[in-house]
Amino acid sequence: VKGLPVLGHCSNPVPFCYVSLDNTIEETLRTAQRLGVRDLIQPRLVSTIDKKGLLEEFHPIVGLVLAKDPATKLFILDGIPALVKKGRISDYGEVKDLVREIRWYCKEKDVTIMGVGGDAKPNGDSFVPYRQRPAGSHAWGHYCSTIFVIEREDPQNVLNLRRRFLVEPRNAAPEEHWYE
């Protein structure tokens, strides 16, 4: 069964789980409410912050999700840099190892994992290529299949709600979409 088009492409809805690695369930639900997706996310939300003994490794988090819903096919990991060992997000080897472990898991289990993280702050007016925008090591861009970037049209004007959404797949043409 096909879902509604997303960014002009056919979609294939699957069971998903939204995993907040850096916010409580209450904080995440407040954000979801502002975005108008609270009812969609609430039954599919897990927060590692709310778990005793804060989970910081990939496999236990996936196990937590699968215990909640074994049919999960899409894992949205918000705050994915928290999974890099000892917080070393600028360490090429540590980021590479994490992303390769996740990619192996995706291939082995036929699932999709979307990691959400911050972007690097540009130095002055210099342009930073989109595959190098995730904060920390360039390994994020080198080893991830697709990079998504959401940026303000006018970063100086917080009242301007217009956003540019860039999709940069590894093996296809990049796409640009605008939203308000």
Mean pLDDT: 86
SSE order: EHHEHEHEHEEE
Query: What distance lies between the first and last C-alpha atoms, to the nearest angstrom?
Result: 29 Å
Spans of 5+ residues with little confidence (pLDDT < 50)?
none
Q: How would you describe the shape?
A: globular
Structural class: alpha/beta
Total beta strands: 7
**Secondary structure tally, helices:** 5
Question: C-alpha Rg, in Å?
Answer: 17 Å
Order of strands in the sheet with the most strands? 2-1-3-4
Helix content: 25-40%
* Largest sheet descriptor: 4 strands, parallel
Strand content: 15-25%
Q: Outline of this structure?
A:
This protein is an alpha/beta fold and 180 residues long.
Walkthrough of the structure:
- With 180 residues, this protein is of the alpha/beta class.
- The strands form two sheets. A four-stranded parallel beta sheet has the order 2-1-3-4, covered by helices on one side. A three-stranded antiparallel beta sheet has the order 5-6-7, with no helix packed on it.
- β3 (74-78), α4 and β4 (112-116) form a beta-alpha-beta unit.
- The longest helix has 18 residues, at 92-109.
- 27% of the residues lie in helices and 21% in strands.
- It starts with 15 loop residues before the first strand and ends with a strand.
- The model has no long low-confidence stretch (mean pLDDT 86).
- It has five helices and seven strands.
